[in-house]
Each structure stands twice: as structure tokens, then as C-alpha cells.
Amino acid sequence: MYSRSLASRVALVTLALLAVASPALAHTGEAAAGGFVTGFLHPIFGWDHVIAMVAVGLWGAFLGAPAVWLLPVTFPLVMALGGMLGAAGVPLPGIETGIAASGLVIGLAVLFAARPPLPVAAVIVAFFAIFHGHAHGAEMPGAVSPLAYAGGFVIGTGLLHLCGIAFGVLTRSRIGAFAVRGAGGVIAALGAGFLTGAL
Asked: Where in the sequence is the signal peptide annotated (predicted)?
């Protein structure tokens, strides 16, 4: 059982991460200029990535076991596949649209307390992970160390998932569940804004 003080501290860390994130989209079409650190910071300093990664963790925590670990594991694994496609130059239409839609759709799932069967939730998460991964992978060839860059963005993504899971622990109380669903609404609104800009 998690204590309220732990949940409060984790919520503060999550808010701090969101506060330092750049309001710009994480991918500008330019090649990454570094290795691990560049890859690690890429998802953390782009709001479009941050909201989706946190939303996956929130949704997993809301759904409970085994979704609480399955969704955050599915996302980076499939994202790595998308990254390989991007690095290989395989075209994927609507990358920015897919990334923006991920925040909207998963945020709405949290807001409305959607409880689909676990395979359906995993497919939704995996679908959007392809777009996020492709965006990262398309920038990987310009990195000093593509493998280090890939490791960095997978770890950065995982930490954002953990922030969402940690905040999602608040669902153990009625007020906490309301706060988590409210966070889903905020994420959905930001995703809608990004989607409007991407269309």
C-alpha cells in the first residue's frame, strides 16, 4: 500500500518534469546531434511526447494489474520497432498527427475511465507507439551513437511512464481517482491542441 506522502512526492516530481518540458514539439526534422543524453532528453523536452508517455502510465495504473506493467512495457518495445523503421527510412504517413492523437485518445481513456479488454488497450498503446518511435528513429542516423541514442529515448520514455504510474496510484482514493481523471482531461485537451496544429 502506498502512503499519501509518497504519492504527494511523486506528484510533485511529475509536475516538475512537466514544468521543465519545452512547449514546442519534440521533433523538428533535424538530425539528433548526440548520443544517449540527446535520446534521453528528446521525449522529456517535448510536450507532445510527455503527455502521451504520462497518459500511458496513468491509464495502466487506472486499469490495475497486469495493465499497470503491460502497457508501459508494450509502448517502449513497439516504439523501438517504430524507431528502427524511422532509422531505415521507411515512410510512415501522418507521424505528427499520430503523435498528437495519442495524447488525445489515451487522455480521453483516462478521463472517461475507459476499461477495454487488456488486449484492446495494449493494441491502442502499441499503435501510437509506432508513431512516437518513428519520429525518434528518423532522427537517429544523425546521432554520434545511434545505439546510445535509442537507449536514451527508451529510458526517458520509461521514466515518463513511471511518473504516470506513480501519479496514477492516487486512484486508490475517491479524490485521487478524480484527480487522475482530471489529469487525463488536461492531457486530452493538450493532445487536441497538438492535433489541431498537426492537421
From this structure: 1-26
pLDDT, tens digit, 9 for 90 and up, residues 31-51? 444 578 887 887 788 888 889
117-125 contacts: CB < 8 A, separation 24 or more?
A: 118/63, 118/66, 118/67, 118/70, 121/59, 121/63, 121/67, 121/71, 122/70, 122/71, 122/74, 125/56, 125/59, 125/71, 125/74, 125/75, 125/78
Residue 118 in domain:
yes
Q: pTM of whole model > 0.85?
A: no
> Is 24 among the domain residues?
no
For the chain, what is the domain count? 1
Domain range for 79 is 4-19+31-198
